[in-house]
Amino acid sequence: MRNVIVTGGSRGLGLGIARNLSAAGYRVITVARKDTDQLNRAMEEAEHANAGSFHFFPFDLAKTEDISQLVKMLRKKFGPVHGLVNNAGASFEGTLALMPNSRIEELLRVNTLSPIVLTKYVVRSML
User: Fold this and answer.
1) pLDDT surpasses 90 at 73
2) Counting CB atoms within 10 angstroms of each CB, which of 15, 84, 120, 122 has the fewest?
3) d(C-alpha 29, C-alpha 87), whole Å
4) Which residues pair with 85 in a beta bridge?
5) pTM (2 decimals)?
6) How many CB atoms lie within 10 A of CB 97?
7) At what angle do helices 114-123 and 67-78 cross, to 10 degrees?
């Protein structure tokens, strides 16, 4: 079974992508800060249809310094990674002019830096 990591796969578009990949025969490893009822139902459904095809790992992608360890752990547990869907994203309510710098930094880490760093570590074994 080929492994595909889907970030932000606990709800919405990411969960839809994860469900479709699982149904197509891939082993989906979804990464998000926390699970959801929707995600848990999807994993149960996938387990009945294709045992072992849908997994969840809680991880905060804003912690870019820990991404290399995440990828190592996932490879050790599941084997080589065949694909990566960088779907995770963050947004905050409010006006940029009033937003604290720490919020802006978090937005940049999750939406820009973490997909690049995650891709860096995942793609190494694909070369």
Assistant:
1) yes
2) 120
3) 13
4) 6
5) 0.92
6) 5
7) 40
pLDDT digit string, tens, across residues 43-66: 999 999 999 999 999 999 999 999
As a whole number of angstroms, the distance between CA 81 and CA 75 comes to 7
What is the Cα–Cα distance from 88 to 96, expressed in whole angstroms?
21
Query: Which residue type, as a one-letter code, is found at position 31?
Result: V
Q: What are phi and psi of 102, to 5 degrees?
A: -60, -35
Give the relative orientation of helices 37-49 and 12-23 as an angle to the nearest 10 degrees: 0
Q: Which of 111, 89, 78, 66 is CA-nearest to residue 9? A: 89
Q: How many Å from the N-terminal Cα to the C-terminal Cα in the chain?
A: 19
Nearest C-alpha neighbor of 86 from the set 76, 103, 71: 71
Integer CA distances (angstroms), 63 to 36, 51, 54, in order? 21, 31, 24
SS3 category, 120? helix
Q: What is the pLDDT of residues 82-109, one digit of tens each?
A: 999 999 998 888 888 888 999 999 999 9
Distance CA 56, CA 13 (A): 16
